[in-house]
Amino acid sequence: MKRFFSIDRDIVQRLGFSFLTIMAVVTVVPIISVVIYIIVQGGPAVSWEFISAMPHDGMRAGGILPAIIGTIYLTIGTAVFSVPLGIAAAIYLSEYAPDNRLTQLIRVAIINLAGIPSVVYGLFGLGLFVLFLKFGTSILAASLTLSIMTLPVIISASEEALRSVPQPFRTVSISLGGTRWQTIRRIVLPEALPGILTGVILGLERAAGETAPILFTGAAFFLPRLPGSVFDATMALPYHLFVISTQVPEMPIQIQYGTALVLIVFVLGMNIIATVVRSRARAKRQW
Amino acid sequence: MQPADLPQAKVSIQDLSLQYADGTESLRGISFDIPANQITVLFGPAGGGKSTLLRCLNRLNDLTEVKKLDGKILIEGENILDPKTDVIALRRRVGMVFARPVVLPFSIRSNLTYGLELAGERRKSRLTEAVERSLSQAALWEEVKDRLDDPAIALSGGQQQRLCLARVLALQPAIILLDEPTSGLDPISTGKVEASLQELKKTYTVVLVPHSVQQAARTADFAAFFLQGELVEYAHGEEAFTNPKDQRTEDYVTGRFG
Known about the structure:
The complex is a heterodimer.
Chain A: H1 2-42, H2 48-52, E1 55-56, E2 61-62, H3 65-96, H4 101-113, H5 118-132, H6 139-163, H7 167-175, H8 180-209, H9 212-215, H10 237-246, H11 253-284
Antiparallel strand pairs in A: 1-2
Helix pairs in contact in A: 1-11, 3-6, 3-8, 3-10, 5-6, 6-8, 7-8, 8-11, 10-11
Chain B: E1 9-20, E2 26-35, E3 39-43, H1 50-57, E4 66-75, E5 78-79, H2 87-93, E6 94-97, H3 108-118, H4 124-137, H5 141-144, H6 157-169, E7 175-179, H7 187-200, E8 205-209, H8 213-219, E9 222-227, E10 230-236, H9 237-242, H10 247-253
Parallel strand pairs in B: 3-8, 3-9, 6-7, 7-8
Antiparallel strand pairs in B: 1-2, 1-4, 4-5, 9-10
């Protein structure tokens, strides 16, 4: 009797594990398929000319250089605003803020900001930066809009990273005559840096791939030249992909998939950097 | 209530009362003097207020929310509980070793120079001198002199605790506070730390919360018995353990409770 039950349990357990394994594999299938499909479809279109030349023939031929450059500009622009602000806010919340109504409110606001649909950010950016502040449809307005969208990600990840630095480090540093800021700068920030970097890269990567927030704030349908200042509009990879897939008749399909491939390489590249940074830091961690 | 022939006081605690906001531990009307160049032991069962008192002596209690704090702590005549006290300078003068060794995530050398660098010391000769001196005083120099740039975390638990002691000594404080510094150490490491303390008291004023009555008896020049936030008895070390005046002290040192 006893033996019967134990065999039974064993089978149930094996079935359970198999089921979970299958589920885990199933989740990976779509991601892998997307990447493979885009590589197969877009690979032939990607050449040196494709990533280094201006488009011509109504974007049906030539390269996508202005879109690549534009996405790089927007990513840098987003980083300029969101990284210092986000890390500063995280340091305040983790290291200085008292636990009161105000900081609870700030935290709730940050969590909810992360849940706002990106097109709403786009509309907000149009109202505030493009029209009210008169930045026009520009790299500046688009970068600011993307920054607002990215901030919650950077703040949450950075705060998490700062909080995971063991409390005794702070106590010891204070007991050795350190000020709070010395403690943060010399111990807490260096220890939290890999986690902060991971959050920053993940946030920027999201910004780089977004279409909706730049739709009304900075993206151009087509520009014959590269943007010359932050007040110029710019082409960008995700918006370019949308345009050539829906707005341009008789668009060669390889160019669409080629553009998608370049965008994915850009975004996945950042993702891989984040993963490497994190795993290296974890291997080095001494606590 | 203190021994009549107490040597010159380094610290004078006057009617100190404290209550934490979360109601955990408290101190009630504590008054006694801590003599210079002696080992003064604060002992008693957990929750008696020993650690709390220790943390008041270098104002680490500032990091915890305190509901009520009355009385004075005079160090060389200056009331350090005064809000105008320069706490940074105070903490350099009153060093603290914690129960669990916490080495900072740096090399052995950087752990030792950390406090001095915070204080603005940049001269390499001074830093190098401080490293060797403090490690020797903490009886660790011979063991680590060839690997000062290794990560401190690679040291054994006993070595780490001696490094923590050395880190405090590097600042050349006047007073050293030790909160159960050997609670996680093996007997050999414990012996080394206790031996260092006997050396150190020649230069420094030592205040120790021991992790056992036996350690209290072994190390104390003077001993203060704390029970539920009150100072019950304060006497010469030997007297407190062999001939206590208060019944509660006797019950505790003979192992009837605690």
